[in-house]
Amino acid sequence: MNNTELMNDRIRVIHDAARMEKRPYRVPHIGNVWNWMHVYMDEPLNTILRDYSLIERDLRAMEEAYNFDAIVTIALRNPLRIFDPIGQAAHHVDEKTRSVHIEQPDIMKGEEYPEFSADMVRMMWTKMMPRKFPSLCEPGGETKLLKSAEEFLLFTQKQTEFIDMLTKDYGMPRPMTGGETPMVMPSFEFFFGYFRGIRDAAIDLRRHKEELAEACAALDSVFVDPVFDQPWTPGPNDALLFDICSCFMGHIVMNRKQLDVFYQPFIKKARDMLVKNNKSLYIFLEGAGSPLWQYMEDIPKGHLAIQLDMDDIYQTRESLPNACLIGGMPSALLGNGTPDQCVDKARALVETVGANGGFMLSQDKMLSIRSDAKPENMKAVSEFIRDFRY
Question: Which residues are CB-neighbours of 171 under 8 A, at least 6 positions away?
């Protein structure tokens, strides 16, 4: 196959798996690879993450070695260059472990939810940004902000270039997330991951539940409702792997009643849009998702695909026969087992979970550090899945 034919074949088997109308003739292999593709290289991680030519080199090396049908993201997870001009407030690179540590945000106070709901844009610029980047309030702050904006534009340009490079040179479709695929998340995710942090957001669910719910509703009106309520063209977009994508992480700190308030409405809005317009949703899940299955079990087949993290994929298949499941390949085995053990596990997955379709093989964690996987194990699994046929 030439690269155009290869890309069309990859899109076809991914669509067959996701839409669950028939079992694809082979199992798609999805790369959940993040900083791991850099950690075996010679240069310091600090250097690689700031050098787009090295990032491109590692993207090419990854695809040439492992032949993924698609990747979760273009892997520019830690855009350090954007924040360098205004001060690195969160990202810390540990060269000894070849890892990136991200500090919990501390840019919003629990008592400020009413102020956020009243005028979130004003609060972001007058309080949250200065707390995150104090240098913006110093002499020369405007110049620093302009330089950061220039780096952001370069970052988006490079992201597009990398996606186009993988398509043209390797026959890889657009990634699961990013690119032209709209991203929309439950609004609690913003407070959980960006504004308040895991610990404080979890406390707020008890101390400031009503104010937090109102702030989430304010964010919904800006970031969620316009996506779901737009005039969609009916039918799937065959140029994309999925019509819309999302990320769930904040659910891990919630009980059933809290999930009813902060996640169930989002999932219902998604379901109604998906069914009405015959669209598909890809959810990148972090943590155990089983408490959410109750809200997803009535979504018809062909509309939902979930990238699993901590959930047992066999139990999830029983609980959600209506969803395409992505994952299953344990990073613990990839990082500590032998090539034969990894291939045996991959074979068991495709012959059981994938027996009737609705399955894509992928790593069960965001591969980020050396211990997440051995290259020889990744290579063995990639070669097996490439040649496997039902």
Answer: 1, 2, 3, 4, 5, 6, 7, 10
- What is the spatial distance between Cα 199 and Cα 174, in angstroms, rounded to a whole number? 35
pLDDT above 90 (res 290): yes
Residue 298 belongs to domain with CATH number: 3.20.20.210
Residue 58 near residue 41, CB atoms below 8 Å: yes
Instruction: Give the model confidence (pLDDT) of 334-385 as tens digits.
Output: 999 999 999 999 999 999 999 999 999 999 999 999 999 999 999 999 999 9
Separation in Å, CA 109 to CA 145, 187, 203, 254, 277: 24, 17, 12, 20, 40
The backbone torsions φ and ψ at residue 327, rounded to the nearest 5 degrees and listed phi first, read 140, -145
- What does DSSP assign to residue 240? S
Q: Which domain holds residue 190?
A: 3-78+171-387
Tokens of 126: 């007058």
Residue 95 lies in a domain: no
For the chain, the domain total comes to 1
Query: Does the residue 106 lie in any domain?
Result: no
**Is the model's pLDDT at 89 over the cut of 80?**
no
- Residues 271 and 273: their CA atoms lie apart, in Å, by 5
**What's the predicted TM-score (pTM) here?**
0.96
In a domain? residue 194: yes
Band of pLDDT at residue 103, cut at 50, 70 and 90: confident
Query: What is the rounded CA–CA span in Å between residue 366 and residue 354?
Result: 21
Q: Are strands 99-102 and 91-94 parallel, antiparallel or unpaired?
A: antiparallel
In a domain, 211, yes or no: yes
Buried b (16+ CB within 10 A) or exposed e, 358-387: bbbbbbbbbbbbbbbbbeebbebbbebbee
Task: Let me know how long the chain is.
Answer: 390
Query: What 3-state DSSP class applies to 89?
Result: coil
Q: For residue 154, give the H/E element and its range.
A: helix 141-170
CA-CA distance, 6 to 3, in Å (whole number)? 5
What rounded mean pLDDT belongs to the chain?
95
* pLDDT tens digits, 130-177: 999 999 999 999 999 999 999 999 999 999 999 999 999 999 999 999
